[in-house]
Hints:
about 0% strand, Major facilitator superfamily (MFS) profile domain-containing protein, membrane, MFS_trans_sf, cell membrane, about 400 residues, transmembrane
Amino acid sequence: MAHQVSPPFARESLSREIVRLVGGQGGVHACMSGLRMAVPLMALQLGHGAAAVGLLLALFGAAQLAISIPAGRMADRHGLKRPMHISMVAAFAGAAVAAAWPTYPGLCATALLEGGAVALAVIALQRHAGQIAHGADELRRVFSWLSFTPAAANFLGPFAAGLVIDALGYRAAFLLLGVGPVVSWAFLRGATALPASAGPSRSGAGGEGLWRDPAVRSVLLMNGFVSATWDIHGVMVPLLGHARGLNASAIGSILASFAIAAAAVRLLVPWLGRHFREWVLMASALTAACVLLAVYPLMRTALAMGACSMLMGMTIGGVQPMVMSLLHQITPPHRHGQVIALRMMMINASSISMPLMAGAAGGIVGAAGVFWIMAASLLVGVRVAFDLRRMPPP
């Protein structure tokens, strides 16, 4: 197990630091999520078609994918403050470019700036969170809150942007979203600056050396299965609901029930972690998700699909903070940023590839077939979870 090298925080100090990190992440993430909703709508208003909108959305993820490893190395080398300052400037600049230059090239620049800003922020904040927490209980507590924050920001950013767009127009919404990075700066001003971790910051070739570690590889594969399940659910539920004759509001409610349950269960992770080993919780989550994916296509009503969706959110929503806790326990402190970056790359690769694969497979085997294929693949994920039994308890 890798041990933390920073001095212990008192419980009150740790709570204050968590508040700072939550506020710091929330401001940047709300800015990005609001722009990710508003920028495509602006492009449609400018007369661009679906392909142009798809490219804009892809640029958000492509920027995160491209910058993850450099961001991880920067976080390992410089800690929290420098990556976060760059992230906040980039997020503010993205909103400002959209407001000052509301053309398609300007919107593309905004997408790239916001995607890169979020990658820098998430990696730096998650690395710092692992450094201030001592022991598995504190790790689960910190990461349960940090994983809850994007869910809240994903609601707040688009909701606020939508209200302002309807009332005052797009430019006013872009300017409002630019306040988010300023809020992040206000929260993080008092964050603790920790010394750099001892150890070579460039050990291994990017994530290649980390991937060779069996424990790291197993945890990242677990994360990959959960990410793929999350993406398949988001893509295929609208298709399945359409095939069932459900209207847009019913389909939206089904997806909302998943998001609410996934966010809420993360706050229970510290309690669950005190009573069960991580591998038990992960194996149970993937087993339950496998069963739910298998029965999902058999549901015929919005209520039944909504129940499945909520249960699905409850089963896989808590895996992310457990993954982050495990990665910080098994990775040397001077490589925490890089392992977080490797995880982010896998998530973004899944977000780009799984919708394409699901769409292609759905055209051949139908929406129900895609659910059943994913359910069968999760059996491999359950086997990977059992491999984590060999990890010593924290």
